[in-house]
Amino acid sequence: MFKFSALLLFVSVPVLVSADCGQPIHPDGDTTKCLDVRGANFTDGTPVQIFDCNGSNAQMWDIMPGNTTVKLHSYNFCLDAGSEPANGVPMKIWECFDDLPAQTWFYTGDQRIALLGQGFCLDLTNGAHVDSNVVQTWICTDNNSNQVWTLDP
User: CA-CA distance, 136 to 111, in Å (whole number)?
Assistant: First the structure.
């Protein structure tokens, strides 16, 4: 008769996983407002704004901590800062391109979405949590609540 012994080895590996359905991005923890593509118009140049959260595809984003793109889930459109980021430049979506500086962001530990290596952050224009307020780039500033963007847990 044969005896069979099995040794099972379990290895725990940390994995960073993004949501299967994308996730909303909220200004400064306000879960009633979401980063939104105006009119759910998925074409180059459509403004990105703040709007009441409604769970639509226009509000579902793929974003990861650290170096990242801010990409519409299930679409090949990214948050785009344009070719000359500066204070007050309105945000838009544009077809995603690998390694394009206008689409390369860094989600910081203090919840800012910053253009990688450029000193500008995604900014809630005038801090106004009102529908249709188009977001902009602005020089990254410590303790500026207009530049805090929270994700759902």
Answer: 16
Tell me whether strands 120-123 and 105-107 are parallel, antiparallel or unpaired.
unpaired
Exposure letters 54-85 (e unless 16+ CB within 10 A, then b): eeeebbbbbbeeeebbbbbbebebbbbbeeeb
Angle at 18 between CA 61 and CA 151, to 5 degrees: 55
pLDDT digit string (tens) for 16-41? 334 467 999 999 999 999 999 999 99
Nearest to 36 by CA among 51, 22, 19: 51
Q: How far apart are CA 153 and CA 146, in angstroms?
A: 20
Amino acid identity, position 88:
G
Q: 52 - beta bridge partners?
A: 33
- Burial of 94-123, coded b for 16+ CB within 10 Å and e otherwise, reads bebeeeeebbbbbbbeebbbbbeebebbbb
Q: How far apart are the first and last CA of the chain?
A: 54
pLDDT per residue as tens digits for the range 40-66: 999 999 999 999 999 999 999 999 999
Q: 141: which DSSP letter?
A: -
Give the dihedral of Cα atoms 56, 29, 140, 24; nearest 10 deg: -20
